[in-house]
Amino acid sequence: MATPEQTGSAIPATAGSSVAGTAGHTPGHGAAAALDAGTISARLDRLPATRSIWKLVVLLSLGFFFELYDLLYTGYVAPGLVKSGLLTATTHGLFGTTGVASFIAALFSGLFIGTIACGFLADRFGRRAVFTYSLLWYTAANVVMAFQETATGLNFWRFLAGVGIGVELVTIGTYISELVPKQIRGRAFACEQAVGFTAVPVVAFLSYLLVPRTLFGLDGWRWVVLIGAHGALFVWWIRRALPESPRWLAQQGRVAEADRVMSELEAKVRSEYGRELPPPAPPVPVAPRGSFRDMWVPPYRSRTLMMTIFNIFQTVGFYGFANWVPTLLIKQGITITTSLMYSSVIALAAPLGPIIGLFIGDRFERKTVIVVMAAVNIVCGLLFSQVAQAVLLVSLGVCLTLAGNIISYSFHAYQTELFPTSIRARAVGFVYSWSRFSAIFTAFLIASVLKEFGTTGVFVFIAGAMLIVMLAIGLMGPRTKGIELEKISQ
């Protein structure tokens, strides 16, 4: 893969410049095509953050809401699955297939396949199309799953839903990083996560109301799943208002289309801005189409290794708590109904972490935020395992949720910044897939640790994982705040 240093010098573009005349270029035209794509990126990065820019972020964030609803209802419906007799709270043997751990593992097995094997789809077919069809895929799989009567059927359809969710996770992050100017990337991801994580209190409250009950002959957990499936009704509306990523179009050699998207966006922003747009910076040449092996050449090799290590261990902290909150509370002697009520209160904090990010997302280096919040996770988790009073349990649960979700928006932004447009979805899919792989085994390990060592053992296990997170990002992570995506890739 050609690096930016190898593609030649950049040619500045003026504020109103058009690159439509370069439509005949393809990636095979070398430096000229690289500069065409660089010009598109420079035009986008100079845009003020007006209403039209934030509208695109919010629309993608709505897609993320439906995704997180489906991803995170696991822990909240688990008591209902046990109550209905479909699953057991613990497993018979480390890798038993009839326990809650198998249900969690089925989801993350699908997520692993979706991210590691299908991440290239967005690089090949575009961000917009893959965003749409992966959402429809996992919605359909969840509807079928809601009517299963065996653990095997339940786990199979949860696996298929996980494949679609995995593809969607990679695509949304890539899409947002390429649609927004550099000065708001952190806040854009914070917005995405703030909107998305409102799904957590929604699913927690619905679970509190529905899981202990049976309505119209259907167990309450089935209603929780089916309510989430309404996201498919909105997908075409969301899709109509979203343009394809102009960065992706230009990198594919479709420069005329990229110019048309940029011209329309510039016109909207200019009318909202009220004056002429600032001139774009000199464009940084963009690398041609990439391949899997490009992740393993400097500087991407160390970033790939760093984010792989990070994702393997951050999952232990995030899902080790999020997916097990009601079960951990029940293990400490709290009833199903009360544990779901406590979990609902804790879940109210889920959007607050990203909301905080709207104020700090572009003020601090993302690697610094990740390291500090991982330390908070360790301290609060160990304290959580030692208390029994309701106020302390809920307060520490809120702190754990805030820390986890601040880490979440920070690293979703961070990992998309570390790779160039030519391999961004593929690379993010690869490194992120290891969090899914880790979660498959984490579910069984936490079930085993919980059985043998109780809640304290679970949080000691989580603390060790978060310490590795701190070391990986703190020692190996580059700085990215406020830097053009193309320059980070140099």
From TrEMBL:
Q: Where is the Major facilitator superfamily (MFS) profile domain?
A: 56-481
What Pfam families does the record point to? Answer: Sugar_tr
Q: Which residues cross the membrane?
A: 53-73, 93-122, 129-147, 159-177, 189-209, 221-238, 304-322, 342-361, 368-384, 390-409, 430-450, 456-477
InterPro entries to which the protein is assigned, alphabetical: MFS_dom (IPR020846), MFS_sugar_transport-like (IPR005828), MFS_trans_sf (IPR036259), Sugar_transporter_CS (IPR005829)
Keyword vocabulary terms for this entry:
Membrane, Transmembrane, Transmembrane helix, Transport
* One cellular-component annotation, GO: membrane
Please name the GO terms that the record assigns under molecular function.
transmembrane transporter activity
Q: Where in the cell is it found?
A: Membrane
The principal location of this protein is membrane
> Which residues are in coiled coils?
none
What membrane topology was assigned to this protein in its record?
Multi-pass membrane protein
Q: Which family does it belong to?
A: Belongs to the major facilitator superfamily. Sugar transporter (TC 2.A.1.1) family.
- Full protein name: MFS transporter, putative metabolite:H+ symporter
According to its UniProt entry, this protein's organism is Paraburkholderia phenazinium
